[in-house]
Amino acid sequence: MQIKDLGEFGVIDLLTRMVVDQRASSSNGKTFSLDLSVDTGDDTAAWSAGAKAVTDLFTTDTMVEGVHFTRETTPWEDLGWKSLASNISDVASMGGLPTFALVTLGLPPETEVLDLESLYKGMLQISNEYGLAIVGGDMVRSPVVFITVALTGAMQGQPMIRTSARPGDLVAVTGHLGSSGGGLKLMLENPSERGEAADFLMRSHRRPRPAVAVGQSLV
Question: Which of 3, 92, 152, 191 is deepest in the core (most CB within 10 A)?
Answer without folding.
Answer: 92
